[in-house]
Write a structure and sequence with these properties.
The protein has 276 residues and is α/β, with parallel strands linked by helices. The protein has helices at 8-11, 25-38, 58-66, 87-93, 106-115, 135-144, 165-185, 200-206, 216-225, 253-266, and strands spanning 45-51, 74-80, 99-100, 121-126, 129-131, 150-152, 155-157, 196-199, 230-232, 240-242. It contains ten helices and ten strands. Helix 3 (58-66) links the parallel strand 1 (45-51) and strand 2. The model has no long low-confidence stretch (mean pLDDT 92).
Length: 276
Amino acid sequence: MFRPKVPSEILKHWHQYKNPDDIPQEVFESIKAGFEAQRCDNPLISVNIIAWNEEAFILRNLSSLSAMKSQYPIEFIYVDNNSTDRTSEIIRKCGLNPIMERTQGYGFARQTALENSKGKFIITGDADTAYLPTWIDTMVKPLIEGKFLGSYGTYSFVPQAGQARIRYAFYELFRDMMHHFRSIKRPELIVVGMNFCFPGKEALEIGFIKSGARMEDGKMALALLKRGKLIRVTDSKSIAWTGTRTVEQSGTLLQAGIARIVKDAKRLSIFFYKKK
């Protein structure tokens, strides 16, 4: 799916500030009111967000989730993975109480969030990512209908000032093509924690790997595949929108694109057999 523009529903939550003290109080109050309107005692769905030193980006996530439009009762679980900045302070100012996980590592943080969730279904996201109001219902629909054990979605990039979105759209188009082929036999290789939905009971029985390596989502997906089917959700309503810092860690977008082509070419054979 070609996505040449960032949705306005994302842009209005894409807060930018140099210091948390620059955030107007009315922004906090608006987000807090949004979460309060969604508060419930018996959630069907738990949204799990893990964060480590995300004071510069987490307001985007909080703002977008506070504006969710779901027909189901929801709770929001935030885990601070031992941040040394003001991540937890920002979460509290938005009306939520973060859980502190002192042992650093994606798996540890995901497991803590899971163990503190009440919902039958879990949706995991990332603290530097913004979501559309339709995200939750779109991702959970295959599970509620009983057709699949879990679902996983994809993500797009919000360019920095002065960058053209169209460049990222073409990069994502190639990536999504590769993900389509990989999802046929090896879906666990493209599951990402920023957009993953699964049943809480089964996940608790499996447990996230206790590791600092960023493979906790794929390992969980692989274990779930032994119990049922996962579906790749490509509906535009389910897209997670994140910043560009990840894709450009290896340099320019062109360099990142070349690196992806080389990487996928080397791993082409794994598209055709299942992991045992």
